[in-house]
Amino acid sequence: MRALAERLTPTITAQSVSKYETGKMMPSSSVLLALGKALDVSLDFLMGSQVEALDGLEFRKHSTTSARDRARVEAILIDKLERYLAIEAILDMPVNLDWLGSFRCDRVATEAEIDSRADALREAWGLGVGPIPSLCELLEEKGIKVIEDDLPERVTGLACRGFRGDEPVSEAVVVSRRINVERKRFALAHELARRIIRSTGNPAISLKSAMHRFAGAFLIPSERLGLEAGIRRSRITRYEIVRLKQLYGVSAAAMLIRLGQVGILAPASVRRAFATFARPWRKEEPEPTGPNEGFAALEAPSRFERLVSRALGEELISPARAAALLEQSLDFVERQVVGRVPL
User: Where does the chain show beta strands of DSSP type E?
Assistant: First the structure.
């Protein structure tokens, strides 16, 4: 609070910041503008009331992520959720927070059970055993809000539930635009696992490893992988792994680990690969997917923009309001959304 107060012009005290947060005092218009500039958020965010609190913030983060970076990410998330909930309210859309239903579980005891739950969810959602074209589209369709933004460098993503008072109003996942599509898809599948698996009943399986296992099983079903790579292999080539990772839209390291999980490769073979040709894969993706290639062309959230366009088309909001919601210029909205060509 003291650091924030010192950054503002006009200057205020840390006690004033505390009173703003607790609702005991309202900032003046000049202080509101200064707060927006210092925190890099809009006035809509500062004055909004759709999201009063975030619960269960789980950062997929570097260990040195600063408190300032975390606070900035939280502000970004609340700002985006405010906009999202505003357009849903305008369109009178119902809140659905039970999109997983009976698939949530208190604990899993074995790795086989984790794989079985991933397979059952795919079957229930009619996904078959092939690659999923877009995790963003799938999760948005099922009720989770996917938000992509320019997060601080050391933050790759987070997940949370938004509250208004004691009432949950939204579930959301935020991912960074800085990460490649392979990491993004796995991060989204990991956040899906977070909503399904609450704990493990086996001390040998950590919650983090259980979520990793679920993400791998959900993205790469064992049935199809066996047909692609063979049932039992003593060795596998770099070329085969790169082809498989491009087929499923995951990292080469994740594919190699999955080949070991389903028993196609023996644990010793996986270790040997990571000690030789796959050694750099933990830090550098081999033959990464380009920005507009393959899965990268499909893996982007779009529901929010579609809802704004729908509200605009139904004349429920003005072009100026649409521009504010989209954080774009009025000229952009008129050209790209309305279809007008400026004179």
Answer: 53-61, 145-149, 155-164, 167-176
Full strand arrangement of the beta sheet holding 167-176? 53-61, 155-164, 167-176, 145-149
Residue 5 has pLDDT above 90, yes or no: no
Dist. CA 334–CA 322, nearest whole Å: 10
Percent of the chain that is helix, strand, coil (3-state, to 5) = 55, 10, 35
For the stretch 226-240, pLDDT in tens is 999 998 998 899 999
What is the distance between the terminal CA atoms of the chain, rounded to a whole angstrom? Answer: 49
Distances (CA, A) of 335 to 191, 246, 342: 36, 36, 7
CA 54, 60, 64, 65: dihedral to nearest 10 degrees?
A: -40
C-alpha pair distances (Å), 200 with each of 56, 110, 111, 298: 18, 8, 10, 33
Alpha-carbon distance values, 39 to 15, 71, 74 (Å): 18, 9, 11
Q: What is the mean pLDDT of residues 34-48?
A: 69
pLDDT of residue 321: 86
What band does 46 get if pLDDT is binned at 50, 70 and 90? Answer: low
